[in-house]
């Protein structure tokens, strides 16, 4: 497990994440709230303190406008780079 509690920072692709890690607030929220995983499971799988998982969830819910903006940025980036992906079904034709 991590040695110290981590803060939420925005120094990686301008998206909130656990300090010193590439684990984003959005990722943790998706794992716990969308996929239904227990916070302890997420912590164990990603070698972080369970407090970090709760800290990320708290941050997500304390900053709704910021998190909506992050989601819009992700969607826009996906649209902007859609032409770079390969549809596996298209390869079979």
From TrEMBL:
Coiled coil: none annotated. Signal peptide: none annotated. InterPro entries: DUF433, Homeodomain-like_sf, WH-like_DNA-bd_sf. Residues 71-93 are annotated as: Disordered. SUPFAM superfamilies: Homeodomain-like. Gene3D superfamilies: Winged helix-like DNA-binding domain superfamily/Winged helix DNA-binding domain. This is DUF433 domain-containing protein. It comes from Halorubrum halodurans. The lineage of its organism: Archaea, Methanobacteriati, Methanobacteriota, Stenosarchaea group, Halobacteria.
């Amino acid at each position: 497990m991590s040695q110290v509690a981590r803060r939420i920072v925005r120094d990686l692709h301008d998206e909130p994440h656990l300090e010193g890690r590439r684990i984003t607030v959005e990722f943790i929220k998706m794992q716990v709230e969308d996929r239904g995983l227990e916070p302890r499971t997420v912590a164990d799988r990603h070698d972080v303190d369970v407090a970090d998982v709760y800290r990320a969830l708290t941050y997500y819910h304390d900053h709704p406008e910021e998190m909506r903006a992050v989601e819009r940025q992700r969607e826009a980036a996906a649209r902007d780079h859609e032409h770079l992906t390969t549809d596996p079904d298209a390869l079979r034709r």
